[in-house]
Each structure stands twice: as C-alpha cells, then as structure tokens.
Amino acid sequence: MVVVECLDVGLTTLSKAAMSKGMSRFVFVVYSNALATLILLPSSFIFNRTKRPSLTFPLLCKFFLLSLTGITVMQNCVFTAATNWIIGGLFLATASLSVSIWNTSQAAILKGYPSEITIVAFYCFFGTIQCAVPSAIEERDHPSAWKLRPDIELVCVIYSAVFGSVVTFCAQTWCIHKKGPVFVAMFKPLGIAIATLMGVIFLGDTLHVGSVIGAVVIDAGILWSDMGAIQRRKGRSSCN
User: Fold this and answer.
1) Contact, 70 vs 199, CB < 8 A?
2) Most exposed: 21, 160, 225, 237, by fewest CB within 10 Å?
3) In whole angstroms, what is the distance from residue 100 CA to residue 102 CA?
C-alpha cells in the first residue's frame, strides 16, 4: 500500500503538469479509464475464465454503482480546476467520501464475487461510459480537446491507465479482499507526506516545518496502527 500511495501521488503530479499545459480533465479521465479497460477486460477473461463466478445483471448493476462513486465522482472531483480554496476543499471532501463509500461497497461485493481483476475491469468500463457523457457535453465546442498531444498528455494518460488504474485499483481491491476497507483507508494520510516530499524534489515547493512535523505524525500513526493490528492477530492466534 505504500507503493500504491507513491504511484497515486505520482499520478497527481503528472496530471497537474499535463493540465497546466491545457489538457482537459474530462478528456483525461475518459482516456485513462478507456485504456485501463482495454488492458483489464481481456485479461479478466483470459486469466480468470475458469475460476471466475458467472456474471449476472444484478452484479453488473453493482459494478455500475461502484464505478459511479470510485471513478465518476471521485476522479472528477480530484482533478477539478477549482482555484478557490474553499470550493477545492469541498471537492476533495466529496472525493474522500466517495472513496470511503467505494471501499466499503467493494468489500461487500467481494464477499459474493471474489474476482478482483474482473471487478476492476468492469469498474473501469462503466466509469469510462459514465464519464464520456458529461465530457462530450462539456467539450462539445472544443473538439480539439480530444486530440492527445505526444508529450506530457500522452505520458499522463498511459501512466494513469497502467499505474493509476490497473496496478493501483487491483492492489487496493486485493487488499480490501484480504484485509478489509479500513486497512486500505489507513494508508491514505501517508499520501500527504509523500506528496510533500515529491513537491519539494520535483516541483521546487518550499518545505515548511509544519509539513515535516505532519509527515512524522502521519508515519507514527500508521506504524502504531500496524503494531495494533499485529497484536490483534497474535491475540486471535493464541486464543485459537
């Protein structure tokens, strides 16, 4: 999960660079999830065709709702171009709430359908469809926005699809299946410390004392939580 948070912060840094050059956030979300779908859907049918449970219409509806919170709402809130701190904070709070709902809902789905790669594949597929509609409306007067330039825009889309969706989503889904949604959510604050470090190294941001103290507190909290989880597992093992 530490690697996942590093990949997530890397995606945020790249997307900021791409959008500062004029890339539409709507186009970015659609293209990245479409590419992830092209990678994941064939893989799910090739590698899980023998052990994958059958797909039903109610299950597909659950996948659709899952993508609504995890992609359509969350990603569009995260990559919004709001410059006002209050509005931006509200968007990020909405994104965090969507992620929490996504983690909990995914844990419930995994109990009846334990195929992580299939869930992520349909999750990206439905997310692409959901985001394509508002994107087409938003960019209807700017058809050139759908043309990817072979520079940071293309790199950002490929990175987002491969590392931001395929690797990150599959890893998070697997951890939710094995450890539960709380385990995944526990590592989210670590992204703040990683983002601070990457901002200083790659973007030339100023390192403040408060940022260092916050990073130390976050790391200590994660270590404390891990130690508590280990002690609980030892306690259950001794009882058994």
Assistant:
1) no
2) 237
3) 5
State the average pLDDT over residues 98-109: 83
Contact of 171 with 4, CB cutoff 8 Å: yes
If 0-12 CB within 10 Å is exposed, 13-18 middle and 19+ buried, where does residue 51 land? exposed
Please give the Cα distance from 148 to 153 (Å, whole number): 6
Question: What are 130-134's contacts with CB under 8 Å, separation 24+?
Answer: 130/64, 130/67, 130/68, 130/71, 130/72, 131/26, 131/29, 131/30, 131/33, 131/71, 131/72, 131/75, 131/76, 132/30, 134/26, 134/76
Examine the pLDDT at 80 and tell me if it is beyond 70.
no
* Overall average pLDDT of the 49-57 stretch: 74
Burial tier of 178 (Cβ tally within 10 Å: 0-12, 13-18, 19+): exposed
What was the pLDDT predicted at 34? Answer: 92
Q: What is the pLDDT of residues 111-154, one digit of tens each?
A: 888 888 888 888 889 989 988 888 888 888 888 888 888 888 88
Residue 35 backbone class (left: φ over 0; alpha: ψ -120 to 50; beta: rest): alpha
- The b-or-e profile of 17-49 (16+ CB within 10 A means b, else e) is bbbeeebbbbbbbbbbbbbbbeebbebbeeeee
pLDDT recorded at residue 219:
65
- At 66, the amino acid letter reads L
Quick one: pLDDT at residue 225? 66
Using an 8 Å Cβ cutoff, are 67 and 126 in contact?
A: yes
